[in-house]
Amino acid sequence: MATLQGRVISEGMVVAPVFVYEKFSLDKLNYEAGSADEELAKYEDALKVATSQLKELFIKALKELGRDKSLLFEVHQMLIQDDDFKDEVRNLIKDGLDAPHAVQKAGQTFADMMLAIDDDYMQQRALDFKDISNRLIRILANVESNTEILEPAIVVADDLEPSETVTFPKDKILGFVLRQGSANSHTAILARGMNVPALIQTPLKQNSVKTGDTVILDAVDGCFITEPSAEQLAEYNDKIAKRKAMLAELKQYLNGPSLTKSGKAIKLYNNIGSLEDIKSVLENGAEGVGLFRSEFLYMGRSSLPTEEEQTKIYTKALQALDGKPLIVRTMDIGADKQVACLRLKKEANPALGKRAVRICLDDKRLFKDQLKALLRASVAGKLSIMVPMIISVDEVRQCKEILAECREELKAANQPFSENIPFGIMIETPAACILADDLAKEVDFFSVGTNDLTQYTLACDRQNDAVAYLYDDTNPAVLSLMKMVAEAANQNGIWAGVCGELASNSEITSTLISYGYTELSISPAKTPIIRRAIAKTE
Ligand code: PEP
Ligand code: MG
């Protein structure tokens, strides 16, 4: 039995057998190469087959998933027929490569070219080039895509390309668990569109599950349980039944405002990691976004997101929220959230090392790109900026100075931005709690990150299973610090909220409100649950 944590990209809970999906590898293929002419002919044939497959996929996606999601396969039809791409493959074959290797090489070259273009749309095409190349290779090597699921199952894979995701028979898919994957990928969008529970970045070892094994997928708390015990199965069957009943009952709490029994309004916001998550914010009736974990925009890519690119993303987020507030946390890079292209030094204690605001103050250029993007986007809605991992007044002042420099530079460049952007900090270190009274005089709001506050207060690594029994965000030491923080905020006339996981704990809602917290930011699926807990608070 093992319980693994993954990142929820689509919520839900299910107990079911798994279907293990394995990609083929070009190196393991038994491919018999012919002469250059023969390889060219095989490529032309494969091109015809692939094009007709893509036409069928387009029709299937249109019927099952709607116009939006089917467009991708129209794009694939265009890319596979792109003259430059076809010429590249043909030239590589003439240079001596067999057809599958020529397709693979051309696919990689075009994917790299797309990634090098400073444009969101073009960068997404990189995956599409890989996808169409794999389709051609499979046809050339006569390898079936093993997406033939006979019984309803949870698909387990390293990662999935969009066309693989959509090829699975929709009525047989009960969920997805991916070892890799990113929340912004097409695959994630498709999984959400299918409305099945899905986890990405799940550290599941190879061969640790096989097709047919019964597992538990909990894409509410973000865990995947292999070889569950009879007690766990009973526990989850019970949880699933309760969740069903609760979802029915919770419908009445789907829309705001969030008021306590005495009519006190609490801002009930959501935590997100990507633009796509805003859909779920709106569906679950949250009143805004209290934490946009912007570091996810930097992860899993070969180059840093530019000011331009980020401006577009934050602008789109504000537009999608249509007047609802958006609090963007500046990049919380480091510790468990590594950004390969920053090439940070390996550290013995990364959680206590160069992370978040420490990186930003060290690399002003990097920080300024993000701050300027945020300022430029601010004209599109109600934006607030929040800085993580603060331990001193000096750090806050340095951040404000850099922000002021960004304003000056944008003014000089005639770039418009809003003059009133609330500036807040995350309170997630004991030092920030102790200094809360001084810090409150510097900022417009506090948001307590209980995940880190718990790890630093209890000296207990939040990533380490061996000390998980000590990691408790309701520990009295953590709660005492939180009480101090809310009091300091109220005494200085600023608001304080909670955006760590503790805010999603409905047993603690009334305690947090009694301390003086007026904002709670939680995962979208928990919104009606916490709104109900607020309504039950005296
Ligand atoms: C926290 O520490 O509670 C928090 C919200 O930030 P993250 O979990 O992203 O570190
Ligand atoms: Mg944190």
TrEMBL record:
Active site location: H186 (tele-phosphohistidine intermediate), C499 (proton donor)
InterPro entries listed in its UniProt record: PEP-util_enz_mobile_dom, PEP-utilizing_PTS_enzyme, PEP_util_C, PEP_util_CS, Phosphohistidine_dom_sf, PTS_EI, PTS_EI-like, PTS_EIN
Cofactor annotation: Mg(2+)
Keyword match Glycoprotein: no
Reaction(s) catalysed by this chain's protein: L-histidyl-[protein] + phosphoenolpyruvate = N(pros)-phospho-L-histidyl-[protein] + pyruvate
Residues holding phosphoenolpyruvate: R293, R329, N451, D452, R462
One term under GO cellular component: cytoplasm
Stretches of the chain forming a coiled coil according to its record: 26-60
Domain PEP-utilising enzyme mobile: residue ranges: 151-222
Family affiliation: Belongs to the PEP-utilizing enzyme family.
Name used for this protein in its record: Phosphoenolpyruvate-protein phosphotransferase
Originating organism: Amygdalobacter nucleatus
